[in-house]
Design goal:
Helices cover 25% and strands 21% of the residues. The protein is α+β, with helices and mostly antiparallel strands. The protein has one domain (8-75): Macrophage Migration Inhibitory Factor (2-Layer Sandwich). Strands 1-2 form a two-stranded parallel sheet. Helix 1 (20-38) links the parallel strand 1 and strand 2 (45-52).
Length: 77
């Protein structure tokens, strides 16, 4: 596949649980939007997905707010 200096990298962080079909649709849509809004050739759009769970998030204060028992000391770092 021919690529040039117009490569764009898109990193997506999202909750796990999407099907392969949903991910494929996401990749296609990101590629379409990159072309429509920035003129980036589809061959130059690289997408990576990182999936995680609720426990993988801290939304401030060193607390895992979505963890069970997040009000306890065990949820704090």
């Amino acid at each position: 596949m021919h690529r040039d200096d117009g490569i764009v990298y898109v990193a997506v962080t999202m909750r796990s649980g999407r099907t392969p079909e949903q991910k494929q649709a996401l990749y296609r849509r990101i590629t379409e939007l990159a072309y429509d809004y920035a003129g980036t050739e589809p061959r130059n759009v690289f997408v990576t997905v990182t999936e995680n769970e609720s426990i993988d998030w801290s939304l401030g204060e060193g607390v895992a707010q979505y963890a069970v028992g997040s009000g306890s000391d065990t949820a704090q770092i």
